[in-house]
Design brief:
mainly alpha
Length: about 70
């Protein structure tokens, strides 16, 4: 019924979407633009990436952006 790749994409997407929601809430409360944009991107990106390795790489990159970019 489900392929192993599709299940892992679903679970990674759920994880990155949850982290993105946390970044979004933090950015909204603190009025910080970078975590807000990174949170929105983390919530949206899993809908468009079907490759597991690419999804993990982009997710980790988006999670690291608020740490390294301070505005």
């Amino acid at each position: 019924m489900f392929e192993t790749g599709s299940i892992s994409v679903l679970l990674w997407g759920l994880l990155f979407g949850s982290i993105g929601f946390g970044f979004f809430l933090y950015g909204k409360k603190q009025k910080a633009v970078v975590p807000l944009i990174a949170g929105i991107a983390l919530c949206v990106v899993p809908y468009f990436i079907a490759n597991v390795y690419l999804l993990v790489a982009v997710g980790i990159l988006l999670m690291a952006i608020p740490y390294f970019v301070r505005v």
